[in-house]
Amino acid sequence: MTFPRPQRSGTDLPPAVETRNERTATISRFRAEVVPLIPVPQQDSALAILDAAGELPANTLVHGDLGPEHILVDEGRVSGVIDFGDAHLGDAANDLAWPLFGAPVDFAEAIAAAYGLTDDLRRRALVWHQLGPWHEVTHGLDIGDAEMVRSGLTGVLDRLDSSAADVPPAHGWPT
Questions:
Q1: Could you report the per-residue pLDDT of 19-61, keeping only the tens digit for each?
Q2: Which of 97, 84, 90 is CA-nearest to residue 59?
Q3: Is the pLDDT at 2 greater than 70, yes or no?
């Protein structure tokens, strides 16, 4: 499998400090609004994920919403990536969260090989993967959709079972 290289520069993006400020605000909101909805025995694990997220870098141009709906595939080859509306200076591992932890095994292995996956990059991608459902919870709260909040919380709890510190290499690729 081959992967296209980005065609956009980062010169028209907000500075990394803005990414860090927005991340800090988001994490603060998660602490205030999502953590209280998590059963008390799992709150320490939830807070550890938020602590880890607060320490992630913001030094790379990232897509910011890379998932199956934004990856174009033609005859088994990635032919494009669309919808760069969330592009920003952030953590490279953000764009690897879905490919490594949500995509089919062969795609995940190809991504790991193409990017020279390290333990650190894999662990950071897992943190981003674990944070995904947190956004669903807050969006559900914003629009008053109790089912979306419940669905998001289910995702948060499911992903708390995977600790960034002890997850083995995903899909069996070497580290």
A1: 999 999 999 999 999 999 999 999 999 999 999 999 999 998 9
A2: 90
A3: no
How far apart, in whole angstroms, are the C-alpha atoms of residue 106 and residue 48? Answer: 30
Q: Which amino acid is at 93?
A: A
| Beta pairing class for 88-90 and 60-62 | antiparallel
Cβ distance 42 to 157 under 8 Å?
yes
Q: DSSP readout, 66-117? A: -SGGGEEEETTEEEEE---TT-EEE-GGGGGHHHHHTS-HHHHHHHHHHHT-
Instruction: Give 2-64 as a DSSP string.
Output: --PPP---STTSPPHHHHHHHHHHHHHHIIIIIGGGS-HHHHHHHHHHHHHHHT----EEE-S
Largest Cα–Cα separation, the chain: 48
